Protein backbone atom coordinates (compact mmCIF):
# COMPACT_ATOMS: atom_id res chain seq x y z
CA UNK A 1 0.00 0.00 0.00
CA UNK A 2 1.46 3.33 -1.05
CA UNK A 3 2.03 6.05 1.54
CA UNK A 4 -0.08 8.66 -0.27
CA UNK A 5 -3.04 6.25 -0.37
CA UNK A 6 -2.80 5.68 3.36
CA UNK A 7 -2.74 9.45 3.96
CA UNK A 8 -5.71 10.00 1.66
CA UNK A 9 -7.74 7.40 3.50
CA UNK A 10 -7.08 9.23 6.75
CA UNK A 11 -8.22 12.48 5.17
CA UNK A 12 -11.49 10.90 4.09
CA UNK A 13 -12.37 9.93 7.62
CA UNK A 14 -14.85 12.08 9.50
CA UNK A 15 -12.95 14.44 11.77
CA UNK A 16 -12.94 13.17 15.35
CA UNK A 17 -15.34 10.30 14.59
CA UNK A 18 -14.74 6.85 16.03
CA UNK A 19 -16.15 4.96 13.08
CA UNK A 20 -16.28 1.21 12.74
CA UNK A 21 -15.63 1.35 9.00
CA UNK A 22 -12.91 3.77 7.95
CA UNK A 23 -12.83 2.85 4.26
CA UNK A 24 -15.06 0.04 3.03
CA UNK A 25 -13.24 0.01 -0.32
CA UNK A 26 -10.29 -1.66 1.42
CA UNK A 27 -12.47 -4.78 1.72
CA UNK A 28 -13.70 -4.62 -1.88
CA UNK A 29 -13.08 -8.09 -3.36
CA UNK A 30 -12.86 -6.56 -6.86
CA UNK A 31 -10.00 -4.19 -5.93
CA UNK A 32 -6.35 -5.21 -6.00
CA UNK A 33 -3.66 -3.74 -3.72
CA UNK A 34 -0.45 -2.29 -5.08
CA UNK A 35 1.54 -4.82 -3.06
CA UNK A 36 -0.05 -8.30 -3.09
CA UNK A 37 0.34 -10.24 0.15
CA UNK A 38 1.48 -13.84 0.52
CA UNK A 39 2.52 -14.60 -3.06
CA UNK A 40 6.31 -14.19 -2.91
CA UNK A 41 7.27 -17.62 -4.32
CA UNK A 42 4.72 -17.34 -7.12
CA UNK A 43 5.99 -13.87 -7.96
CA UNK A 44 9.53 -15.25 -8.22
CA UNK A 45 8.41 -18.01 -10.59
CA UNK A 46 6.67 -15.45 -12.80
CA UNK A 47 9.73 -13.19 -12.76
CA UNK A 48 11.83 -16.19 -13.80
CA UNK A 49 9.62 -16.50 -16.89
CA UNK A 50 9.97 -12.77 -17.61
CA UNK A 51 13.70 -12.68 -16.95
CA UNK A 52 14.80 -12.32 -20.62
CA UNK A 53 12.90 -9.02 -20.78
CA UNK A 54 15.38 -7.43 -18.40
CA UNK A 55 18.09 -8.06 -21.01
CA UNK A 56 16.01 -6.54 -23.80
CA UNK A 57 14.74 -9.86 -25.20
CA UNK A 58 11.23 -11.23 -25.48
CA UNK A 59 10.38 -13.98 -22.99
CA UNK A 60 8.42 -17.01 -24.10
CA UNK A 61 4.64 -16.95 -23.94
CA UNK A 62 3.42 -17.96 -20.48
CA UNK A 63 0.13 -19.03 -18.95
CA UNK A 64 -0.62 -18.19 -15.31
CA UNK A 65 -3.49 -20.28 -14.00
CA UNK A 66 -5.25 -21.19 -10.78
CA UNK A 67 -8.69 -21.21 -9.12
CA UNK A 68 -10.93 -18.24 -8.37
CA UNK A 69 -9.69 -16.12 -5.51
CA UNK A 70 -6.09 -17.34 -5.69
CA UNK A 71 -4.77 -13.83 -6.32
CA UNK A 72 -3.75 -14.28 -9.97
CA UNK A 73 -5.11 -10.95 -11.20
CA UNK A 74 -3.86 -9.12 -8.11
CA UNK A 75 -0.36 -10.44 -8.69
CA UNK A 76 -0.21 -9.88 -12.45
CA UNK A 77 -1.78 -6.41 -12.45
CA UNK A 78 0.51 -5.19 -9.68
CA UNK A 79 3.60 -6.61 -11.37
CA UNK A 80 2.76 -5.31 -14.85
CA UNK A 81 1.83 -1.87 -13.52
CA UNK A 82 5.24 -1.66 -11.85
CA UNK A 83 7.10 -3.01 -14.88
CA UNK A 84 5.26 -0.66 -17.25
CA UNK A 85 6.09 2.30 -15.04
CA UNK A 86 9.74 1.28 -14.89
CA UNK A 87 9.92 0.88 -18.68
CA UNK A 88 8.34 4.32 -19.24
CA UNK A 89 10.90 5.96 -16.97
CA UNK A 90 13.84 4.28 -18.65
CA UNK A 91 15.63 6.51 -21.19
CA UNK A 92 15.03 5.65 -24.83
CA UNK A 93 17.94 4.04 -26.66
CA UNK A 94 19.24 6.02 -29.65
CA UNK A 95 20.33 3.66 -32.41
CA UNK A 96 23.14 4.65 -34.79
CA UNK A 97 24.62 3.05 -37.88
CA UNK A 98 27.16 1.32 -35.69
CA UNK A 99 25.40 0.07 -32.57
CA UNK A 100 23.23 1.03 -29.64
CA UNK A 101 24.78 1.51 -26.26
CA UNK A 102 22.29 -0.88 -24.64
CA UNK A 103 19.44 -3.15 -25.76
CA UNK A 104 16.02 -1.51 -26.19
CA UNK A 105 13.78 -1.68 -23.17
CA UNK A 106 11.00 -4.25 -23.34
CA UNK A 107 7.63 -2.61 -22.69
CA UNK A 108 4.79 -4.07 -20.66
CA UNK A 109 1.03 -3.71 -21.08
CA UNK A 110 -2.06 -5.15 -19.40
CA UNK A 111 -5.37 -6.03 -21.11
CA UNK A 112 -8.51 -7.27 -19.38
CA UNK A 113 -9.90 -10.10 -21.50
CA UNK A 114 -13.38 -9.40 -20.14
CA UNK A 115 -13.30 -6.05 -21.94
CA UNK A 116 -11.55 -7.41 -25.05
CA UNK A 117 -13.71 -10.38 -25.95
CA UNK A 118 -12.92 -10.61 -29.66
CA UNK A 119 -9.78 -10.78 -31.78
CA UNK A 120 -10.37 -7.22 -32.98
CA UNK A 121 -10.97 -5.91 -29.45
CA UNK A 122 -7.83 -7.60 -28.12
CA UNK A 123 -5.58 -6.25 -30.87
CA UNK A 124 -7.11 -2.81 -30.50
CA UNK A 125 -6.52 -2.85 -26.72
CA UNK A 126 -2.86 -3.77 -27.22
CA UNK A 127 -2.43 -1.08 -29.87
CA UNK A 128 -4.08 1.48 -27.59
CA UNK A 129 -1.61 0.54 -24.85
CA UNK A 130 1.50 1.12 -26.98
CA UNK A 131 0.60 4.35 -28.83
CA UNK A 132 -0.18 7.79 -27.51
CA UNK A 133 -2.79 8.77 -30.08
CA UNK A 134 -6.37 7.56 -29.85
CA UNK A 135 -7.28 4.29 -31.54
CA UNK A 136 -10.65 4.01 -33.30
CA UNK A 137 -13.09 1.49 -31.83
CA UNK A 138 -14.94 1.00 -35.11
CA UNK A 139 -14.79 1.62 -38.82
CA UNK A 140 -11.63 -0.44 -39.30
CA UNK A 141 -11.12 -4.17 -39.69
CA UNK A 142 -9.14 -6.67 -37.66
CA UNK A 143 -6.46 -6.97 -40.34
CA UNK A 144 -5.95 -3.21 -40.40
CA UNK A 145 -5.51 -3.05 -36.63
CA UNK A 146 -3.05 -5.96 -36.72
CA UNK A 147 -1.06 -4.30 -39.51
CA UNK A 148 -0.99 -1.02 -37.58
CA UNK A 149 0.26 -2.83 -34.46
CA UNK A 150 2.99 -4.49 -36.52
CA UNK A 151 4.04 -1.13 -37.96
CA UNK A 152 4.15 0.49 -34.51
CA UNK A 153 6.25 -2.26 -32.99
CA UNK A 154 8.45 -2.86 -36.01
CA UNK A 155 11.85 -4.37 -35.32
CA UNK A 156 12.97 -1.98 -32.61
CA UNK A 157 10.17 -2.28 -30.05
CA UNK A 158 9.33 -5.26 -27.89
CA UNK A 159 6.25 -5.62 -25.68
CA UNK A 160 4.98 -8.24 -23.25
CA UNK A 161 1.20 -8.18 -22.88
CA UNK A 162 -0.69 -9.62 -19.92
CA UNK A 163 -4.11 -10.86 -21.07
CA UNK A 164 -6.24 -11.43 -18.00
CA UNK A 165 -9.37 -13.60 -17.57
CA UNK A 166 -8.87 -15.82 -20.61
CA UNK A 167 -10.94 -18.97 -21.02
CA UNK A 168 -14.08 -17.64 -19.36
CA UNK A 169 -17.48 -17.69 -21.07
CA UNK A 170 -17.42 -14.83 -23.59
CA UNK A 171 -13.64 -14.35 -23.39
CA UNK A 172 -10.97 -15.72 -25.71
CA UNK A 173 -9.41 -19.09 -24.77
CA UNK A 174 -5.70 -19.20 -24.07
CA UNK A 175 -5.22 -21.54 -27.04
CA UNK A 176 -6.44 -18.77 -29.37
CA UNK A 177 -3.88 -16.15 -28.35
CA UNK A 178 -0.99 -17.67 -30.30
CA UNK A 179 -2.97 -17.33 -33.54
CA UNK A 180 -4.15 -13.81 -32.73
CA UNK A 181 -0.61 -12.57 -32.09
CA UNK A 182 1.18 -14.76 -34.65
CA UNK A 183 1.81 -11.94 -37.21
CA UNK A 184 3.53 -9.82 -34.53
CA UNK A 185 5.14 -12.64 -32.55
CA UNK A 186 8.66 -11.36 -33.24
CA UNK A 187 7.82 -8.16 -31.37
CA UNK A 188 5.23 -9.35 -28.85
CA UNK A 189 4.81 -12.13 -26.33
CA UNK A 190 1.99 -12.64 -23.86
CA UNK A 191 1.30 -13.69 -20.30
CA UNK A 192 -2.21 -15.14 -20.23
CA UNK A 193 -4.12 -15.41 -16.95
CA UNK A 194 -6.96 -17.89 -16.45
CA UNK A 195 -8.39 -20.62 -14.26
CA UNK A 196 -8.34 -23.90 -16.15
CA UNK A 197 -5.20 -25.95 -16.64
CA UNK A 198 -3.82 -25.51 -20.18
CA UNK A 199 -4.56 -27.97 -22.96
CA UNK A 200 -1.31 -27.11 -24.76
CA UNK A 201 1.63 -29.07 -23.39
CA UNK A 202 4.19 -26.78 -25.05
CA UNK A 203 3.03 -23.63 -23.25
CA UNK A 204 5.14 -22.49 -20.30
CA UNK A 205 3.03 -22.23 -17.17
CA UNK A 206 3.01 -20.75 -13.68
CA UNK A 207 0.44 -22.39 -11.43
CA UNK A 208 -1.07 -20.31 -8.63
CA UNK A 209 -2.48 -22.60 -5.91
CA UNK A 210 -5.24 -21.56 -3.50
CA UNK A 211 -4.05 -19.55 -0.52
CA UNK A 212 -2.88 -21.48 2.50
CA UNK A 213 -5.02 -20.62 5.51
CA UNK A 214 -2.34 -18.60 7.27
CA UNK A 215 -1.50 -16.70 4.07
CA UNK A 216 -5.15 -15.85 3.49
CA UNK A 217 -5.42 -14.68 7.09
CA UNK A 218 -2.49 -12.33 6.40
CA UNK A 219 -4.28 -10.97 3.33
CA UNK A 220 -7.44 -10.34 5.35
CA UNK A 221 -5.50 -8.75 8.21
CA UNK A 222 -3.79 -6.37 5.80
CA UNK A 223 -7.05 -5.34 4.18
CA UNK A 224 -9.00 -4.95 7.44
CA UNK A 225 -6.24 -2.84 8.97
CA UNK A 226 -6.72 -0.37 6.12
CA UNK A 227 -10.53 -0.49 6.11
CA UNK A 228 -11.68 -0.91 9.71
CA UNK A 229 -11.15 0.90 12.97
CA UNK A 230 -8.66 -0.59 15.41
CA UNK A 231 -10.05 -3.53 17.38
CA UNK A 232 -13.16 -3.61 15.18
CA UNK A 233 -12.53 -7.22 14.26
CA UNK A 234 -10.82 -9.88 16.35
CA UNK A 235 -8.06 -12.16 15.12
CA UNK A 236 -10.23 -15.21 15.78
CA UNK A 237 -12.87 -13.88 13.40
CA UNK A 238 -10.25 -13.37 10.69
CA UNK A 239 -9.02 -16.93 11.20
CA UNK A 240 -12.57 -18.28 11.05
CA UNK A 241 -13.26 -16.53 7.75
CA UNK A 242 -9.94 -17.70 6.31
CA UNK A 243 -10.76 -21.29 7.25
CA UNK A 244 -14.30 -21.02 5.86
CA UNK A 245 -13.16 -19.52 2.54
CA UNK A 246 -10.85 -22.50 1.88
CA UNK A 247 -8.17 -20.51 0.04
CA UNK A 248 -10.50 -18.20 -1.89
CA UNK A 249 -9.61 -14.56 -1.16
CA UNK A 250 -12.58 -13.26 -3.16
CA UNK A 251 -15.09 -15.11 -0.99
CA UNK A 252 -13.24 -14.23 2.21
CA UNK A 253 -13.19 -10.51 1.40
CA UNK A 254 -16.83 -10.59 0.30
CA UNK A 255 -17.78 -12.17 3.63
CA UNK A 256 -15.86 -9.54 5.61
CA UNK A 257 -17.33 -6.76 3.46
CA UNK A 258 -20.81 -8.09 4.21
CA UNK A 259 -20.01 -8.43 7.90
CA UNK A 260 -18.76 -4.83 8.06
CA UNK A 261 -21.94 -3.60 6.35
CA UNK A 262 -24.10 -5.59 8.79
CA UNK A 263 -22.26 -4.18 11.79
CA UNK A 264 -22.29 -0.60 10.46
CA UNK A 265 -26.01 -0.78 9.72
CA UNK A 266 -26.58 -2.02 13.26
CA UNK A 267 -24.58 0.98 14.57
CA UNK A 268 -22.24 -1.20 16.62
CA UNK A 269 -18.61 -0.34 17.34
CA UNK A 270 -17.35 -3.87 16.72
CA UNK A 271 -17.98 -6.64 14.19
CA UNK A 272 -19.51 -9.42 16.26
CA UNK A 273 -19.73 -13.16 15.45
CA UNK A 274 -23.34 -12.77 14.27
CA UNK A 275 -22.21 -10.18 11.72
CA UNK A 276 -19.44 -12.46 10.48
CA UNK A 277 -21.90 -15.35 10.19
CA UNK A 278 -24.25 -13.15 8.19
CA UNK A 279 -21.40 -12.08 5.94
CA UNK A 280 -20.41 -15.68 5.21
CA UNK A 281 -24.04 -16.70 4.66
CA UNK A 282 -24.33 -13.98 2.03
CA UNK A 283 -21.66 -15.58 -0.17
CA UNK A 284 -23.11 -18.46 -2.24
CA UNK A 285 -21.07 -21.63 -2.56
CA UNK A 286 -19.09 -21.75 -5.81
CA UNK A 287 -20.28 -18.25 -6.59
CA UNK A 288 -19.44 -16.04 -9.54
CA UNK A 289 -16.82 -13.41 -8.81
CA UNK A 290 -17.99 -9.85 -8.39
CA UNK A 291 -15.31 -8.72 -10.82
CA UNK A 292 -17.01 -10.84 -13.45
CA UNK A 293 -20.39 -9.32 -12.56
CA UNK A 294 -18.95 -5.82 -12.77
CA UNK A 295 -17.63 -6.47 -16.27
CA UNK A 296 -21.09 -7.22 -17.66
CA UNK A 297 -22.86 -4.77 -19.93
CA UNK A 298 -24.88 -1.96 -18.35
CA UNK A 299 -28.19 -3.55 -19.37
CA UNK A 300 -27.26 -6.86 -17.76
CA UNK A 301 -26.17 -5.12 -14.55
CA UNK A 302 -29.45 -3.21 -14.40
CA UNK A 303 -31.35 -6.48 -14.72
CA UNK A 304 -29.27 -7.98 -11.91
CA UNK A 305 -29.88 -5.00 -9.63
CA UNK A 306 -33.62 -5.41 -10.07
CA UNK A 307 -33.38 -9.18 -9.62
CA UNK A 308 -31.58 -8.70 -6.31
CA UNK A 309 -34.35 -6.36 -5.15
CA UNK A 310 -37.18 -8.79 -5.96
CA UNK A 311 -38.97 -10.45 -3.07
CA UNK A 312 -41.40 -13.31 -2.58
CA UNK A 313 -43.41 -14.53 -5.54
CA UNK A 314 -41.78 -12.05 -7.93
CA UNK A 315 -38.75 -14.35 -8.01
CA UNK A 316 -40.75 -17.60 -8.10
CA UNK A 317 -39.98 -18.24 -11.77
CA UNK A 318 -37.99 -16.74 -14.63
CA UNK A 319 -41.22 -15.57 -16.27
CA UNK A 320 -42.46 -13.77 -13.17
CA UNK A 321 -39.05 -12.29 -12.46
CA UNK A 322 -38.75 -11.00 -16.03
CA UNK A 323 -42.17 -9.36 -15.85
CA UNK A 324 -41.40 -7.71 -12.50
CA UNK A 325 -38.00 -6.48 -13.66
CA UNK A 326 -39.42 -5.10 -16.92
CA UNK A 327 -41.86 -3.00 -14.86
CA UNK A 328 -38.95 -1.08 -13.33
CA UNK A 329 -38.46 2.37 -14.91
CA UNK A 330 -34.68 1.96 -14.73
CA UNK A 331 -34.54 -1.11 -16.96
CA UNK A 332 -36.33 0.10 -20.11
CA UNK A 333 -36.51 -3.40 -21.60
CA UNK A 334 -39.41 -5.63 -22.54
CA UNK A 335 -40.27 -8.67 -20.43
CA UNK A 336 -39.20 -10.91 -23.34
CA UNK A 337 -35.80 -9.24 -23.51
CA UNK A 338 -35.32 -9.45 -19.74
CA UNK A 339 -36.23 -13.13 -19.84
CA UNK A 340 -33.63 -13.73 -22.54
CA UNK A 341 -31.01 -11.88 -20.50
CA UNK A 342 -31.82 -13.95 -17.41
CA UNK A 343 -31.29 -17.14 -19.39
CA UNK A 344 -28.00 -15.76 -20.76
CA UNK A 345 -26.85 -14.85 -17.26
CA UNK A 346 -27.74 -18.36 -16.16
CA UNK A 347 -25.57 -19.82 -18.92
CA UNK A 348 -22.71 -17.59 -17.75
CA UNK A 349 -23.07 -18.80 -14.15
CA UNK A 350 -24.02 -15.35 -12.86
CA UNK A 351 -27.57 -16.49 -12.07
CA UNK A 352 -28.61 -19.91 -10.79
CA UNK A 353 -31.87 -21.50 -11.87
CA UNK A 354 -33.22 -23.33 -8.84
CA UNK A 355 -36.14 -25.76 -9.06
CA UNK A 356 -39.23 -23.83 -8.00
CA UNK A 357 -42.80 -24.62 -7.11
CA UNK A 358 -44.68 -21.75 -8.74
CA UNK A 359 -47.86 -22.64 -10.57
CA UNK A 360 -49.40 -21.33 -13.74
CA UNK A 361 -46.20 -20.36 -15.59
CA UNK A 362 -45.53 -23.34 -17.80
CA UNK A 363 -48.54 -25.62 -17.66
CA UNK A 364 -48.16 -29.38 -17.17
CA UNK A 365 -44.71 -30.82 -16.58
CA UNK A 366 -41.86 -29.94 -14.31
CA UNK A 367 -42.20 -26.78 -12.22
CA UNK A 368 -40.51 -23.62 -13.49
CA UNK A 369 -37.06 -22.66 -12.26
CA UNK A 370 -36.48 -19.79 -9.86
CA UNK A 371 -33.66 -17.36 -10.75
CA UNK A 372 -31.28 -16.73 -7.86
CA UNK A 373 -28.25 -14.41 -7.99
CA UNK A 374 -25.06 -16.47 -7.84
CA UNK A 375 -22.90 -13.77 -6.28
CA UNK A 376 -22.71 -11.93 -2.93
CA UNK A 377 -25.82 -9.77 -3.22
CA UNK A 378 -25.18 -7.47 -0.29
CA UNK A 379 -21.72 -6.60 -1.55
CA UNK A 380 -23.01 -6.17 -5.10
CA UNK A 381 -25.67 -3.71 -3.92
CA UNK A 382 -23.15 -1.60 -2.00
CA UNK A 383 -20.62 -1.58 -4.83
CA UNK A 384 -23.36 -0.52 -7.26
CA UNK A 385 -24.60 2.18 -4.87
CA UNK A 386 -21.80 3.28 -2.51
CA UNK A 387 -23.98 5.95 -0.90
CA UNK A 388 -26.40 3.40 0.55
TrEMBL record:
Signal sequence segment: none
Basic and acidic residues bias: start-end ranges = 379-388
**Keywords in UniProt for this one?**
ATP-binding, Nucleotide-binding
Is Transport among the key words of this record? no
Chain spans, region Disordered: 357-388
Q: Which InterPro entries match?
A: AAA_16 (IPR041664), P-loop_NTPase (IPR027417)
Question: Which residue range or ranges hold the Orc1-like AAA ATPase domain?
Answer: 36-179
**Per the record, where are the segments of Pro residues compositional bias?**
365-374
Task: Tell me which Pfam families the record gives.
Answer: AAA_16
Q: Which GO terms describe its molecular function?
A: ATP binding
Q: What is this protein called?
A: ATP-binding protein
Name the species this protein comes from: Halopelagius longus
